[in-house]
Amino acid sequence: MSDTMPRIPQTPSFRLDGRRALVTGASSGIGLGAAAALARAGAQVTMAARGAERLQQAVTALAADDADVAALPLDISDVAATQAAVAEQGPFDILVNCAGIARHGPALDTTPDDFDAVADINIKGAYFIAQAVARGLIAARRPGTIIQMSSQMGHVGGIDRAVYCATKWAVEGMTKAMAMEWGPHRIRVNTICPTFVLTPLTQSTFDNPDRRAWIESKIKLGRVGQIDDIMGAVLYLASDASALVTGSALMIDGGWTAG
User: Fold this and answer.
1) Is there a catalytic annotation at residue 164?
2) 100, 96, 93, 92: which is closest to 75 by C-alpha?
3) Which end of the chain is more exposed for a tag (fewer CB within 10 A), N or C?
């Protein structure tokens, strides 16, 4: 037997001290939770959203908790403004893109305006903000991590959700392609795919007893998602704990897509 002691592996750090993060859709819901998770892990977080007043309220609340946060009013569907803002304020080591909208309804009733409104943010906005952050990282020769907030509906279909599903499936595809292209630059690109999460924007859905019962019947763990269910996944993908993870979709769906 050898007297040599085995080397005990070290757990990678979840800390983000010294890193700069950009979180979109950060004024409420999952985006606000993501910003809080990153800030509490030591990151300097720029919080972006369309509504300046609500955004400032969120920033003030987090700053009161000793978080290093700043507000950036931004509509990611405005590609030129987004590129200019990222170029001016970056480079960002971390992007968590939580901006997104939905216009649910029967596919037969979808209008071109519905389609364009959802696609402009969920696809085009998501694509070009990822591009802008990656350009800044490559120019600075820095590694980074890009996280797109996708959905379980990027892997399955849903009644009255044809447009939303189309956009999230698109996000899954472009994430894999970007991961392949930007991997040599040490930029990781992944998605987080939540199930139905209880937020102010989804409250009306859950207020319908029949709809809530249907949702809970599909989730194998028997409950809907909470914002804090997503926060750990954001921290994992933003940190060195996921250093070899790219081009992947992290399902946080309570088992919805398992069967």
Assistant:
1) yes
2) 100
3) N
Residue 213 corresponds to which tokens in the numbers above? Answer: 């019962």
The structural architecture, per CATH, of the domain 20-253 is 3-Layer(aba) Sandwich (3.40)
pLDDT score at 146: 99
At 62-114, the pLDDT tens digits run 999 999 999 999 999 999 999 999 999 999 999 999 999 999 999 999 999 99
Query: DSSP string of 190-233?
Result: EEEEE--B--TTTHHHHTSHHHHHHHHHHSTTSS-B-HHHHHHH
Dump pLDDT digits (tens) for 3-26.
688 999 999 999 999 999 999 999
**pTM passes above 0.90:** yes
Predicted local confidence at residue 203, as pLDDT: 82
Options 92, 127, 164, 256, the catalytic residue = 164
CB neighbour list of residue 167: distance below 8 Å, 6 or more residues apart: 100, 118, 119, 122, 123
Q: CA 218, 27, 162, 118: dihedral to nearest 10 degrees?
A: 180
Classify residue 121 by its DSSP letter. I
